[in-house]
Amino acid sequence: MTARTAGINAGGMITYLDFEKPLAALEARILELEEAADDSAVDVKAEIAKLRAKADKLLADSYTRLTPWQKTLVARHPERPHFKHYVAHIFDDFTPLAGDRAFGDDQAIIGGLATIGDVKMMLIGHEKGDDTASRLRHNFGMGKPEGYRKAIRLMELADRFGLPVVTLVDTSGAFPGVQAEERGQAEAIARSTEKCLSLGVPIVACIVGEGGSGGAVALAAAERVIMFENAVYSVISPEGCASILWRTNEKAADAAQAMKMTAQDLKALGVIDRIVKEPVGGAHRDPALACATLGQAILEELDALSTLMPKQLKQQRYEKFLNIGGM
């Protein structure tokens, strides 16, 4: 990823990825012309319009043919919406519920009661943070055992009161530190996955950015898994896979291609159920539109599941995961 910034989108300055360098140059030129327009005796509006049309076409064409590795970079974009942004744009209210009642409150996984209109639910998701301080506070979205145990507690609460569960998955993976292993990381992830599968209420999992390893599966073992078109979902990161297979992370792009980690590949394999369209150029270019689209998809999925009985929901999950990858 490059740190170069130029151009303005709906949210202000944006960070361009390496494959967007031609677009960055075009939009930088547009910005220069716009800044000079007021002081220039020459009318440059026609030239600006021409360059803007060219930039829009280049953006659309680029995002139509993204490689799996490029999609991975988009899914990791620092300005991509995170949990707190979805809460602010989609949900009418959110009441956070803290702690696992055993060790502490993990800020990488946040959950609580929420509503969309008159639909009540339990909302749980990863929060990566969006600046240095918040990323450290949220541990870059990498959950610890107490985070997954908090998720289990909230899912049990939802089950008790008949509330559907919605999860927003965005993590490179569960925290791999010694402290997490000492507190039973693998057991916590396994029990969170088990709890998802055993719920008697609907659960809709949304892969909104990175869906990495067991840290993602622990919140995504749902009867309905929906995924943004530029998100990724895999058992390991491309860099991790490349370091195992080729002993170098320079082969990360090859690993991303081989792992079938894009929404389009996963839909074909039956791992996910629905692809949610993003604004042209990725969710980070128009977060409000991305949030609105996701919110509508969540409501539609919950409505489709609302008439199913607990036994039917469990059976649907059972069949879904047994049939993954089948032809």
Summary keywords:
327 residues; alpha/beta; 2-enoyl-CoA Hydratase, Chain A, domain 1; eight-stranded mixed β-sheet; two-stranded antiparallel sheet; 14 helices; 17% strand; disordered N terminus
Describe this structure in words.
By secondary structure, the chain is of the alpha/beta class. It folds into 2 domains: 17-65; 73-323, 2-enoyl-CoA Hydratase, Chain A, domain 1. The protein has 14 helices and 10 strands. The strands form 2 sheets. Strands 3, 4, 5, 6, 7, 8, 9 and 10 form an 8-stranded mixed sheet that branches. α3 packs across α11, α4 (83-90) crosses α13 (287-305) and α10 (238-245) crosses α11 (252-259). The longest helix is centred in the first third of the chain and has 20 residues, at 45-64. The protein is globular. The model is unreliable at 1-11 (pLDDT under 50).
Topology:
Blueprint: E1 5-9, E2 12-15, H1 21-37, H2 45-64, H3 68-75, H4 83-90, E3 93-96, E4 109-116, E5 119-126, H5 132-137, H6 145-161, E6 165-171, H7 178-182, H8 185-198, E7 203-212, H9 213-217, E8 224-228, E9 232-234, H10 238-245, H11 252-259, H12 263-269, E10 274-276, H13 287-305, H14 310-323
Parallel strand pairs: 5-6, 6-7, 7-8, 7-9, 8-10
Antiparallel strand pairs: 1-2, 3-4, 4-5
Helix pairs in contact: 1-2, 3-11, 4-13, 6-8, 10-11
